[in-house]
Amino acid sequence: MAEKEVILTLEGLAKLEKDLEYLKTVCRRQVAERIKQALEFGDISENSEYDDAKREQAFIEGKILKLEKRLRNAKIIDADEKNTGMVSVGSKVKVRDLEDGEESQFVIVGSAEADPMANKISNESPVGKALLGQKVGDVVEVKVPAGVVKYEIIAIE
User: Fold this and answer.
1) pLDDT in tens, the chain (157 residues)
2) DSSP state of 110
3) 56-75 burial, b for 16+ CB within 10 Å, e for fewer?
4) Which of 45, 78, 142, 151 has its CA 20 to 30 A from that of 126?
């Protein structure tokens, strides 16, 4: 099975690389120190500090492998090369909810960068999928758990 392509902006790529470097340097060193200290307590068969440190080490190594895989499969979206007339990954989209008139702004990103609290929505989310390929003035309908939301696209950056 082919590995899934990970769509990233340049900002998202930099963040993943920074996170990976931190895990490889700081976190690995910290957990190695914890293991060393736990071994100094003697018998590891009943040493909970050692067991905890080894579990943490396995967790960190798993995160490192996951980040390396994402970076290996990364497809970088260059904001300067986008067609600004249509919504695409990397676009900043301003929409108006046609029911209550409330305006929202979203940045469409790959799933690896999605952060709904920062209004970064995945291109694979229901709203992200509905907005992709649309233009200013278009109205999209999005099925959400509460029903259907209609958004009018009022700006694309």
Assistant:
1) 667 788 888 888 888 999 999 999 999 999 999 989 888 877 777 778 888 999 999 999 999 999 999 888 888 876 555 556 888 888 899 999 998 989 999 999 888 888 989 999 999 899 999 998 899 989 999 888 888 889 998 988 8
2) -
3) ebeebeeebeebeebeeebe
4) 78
Smallest Cα–Cα separation from 157: which of 63, 78, 91?
Answer: 91
Rounded CA separation 92/139 (Å): 16
The answer for residues whose C-beta is within 8 angstroms of residue 44's C-beta and 6 or more apart is 38, 50
Pairing of strands 103-109, 120-122: parallel
Output the six-digit token pair for 100.
């209550």
Task: Measure the CA–CA gap between 130 and 141, rounded to whole angstroms.
Answer: 7
User: Under a CB-based contact definition with an 8 Å cutoff, are residues 109 and 9 in contact?
Assistant: yes
Tokens 């904001």 — which residue? 79
CATH number of 79-156: 3.10.50.30
Length of the chain in terms of residues written: 157
User: What residue type is assigned to position 83 of the chain?
Assistant: N
Q: Which residue has the tokens 């914890």?
A: 34
DSSP string, 4-32: PPEEEEHHHHHHHHHHHHHIIIIIHHHHH
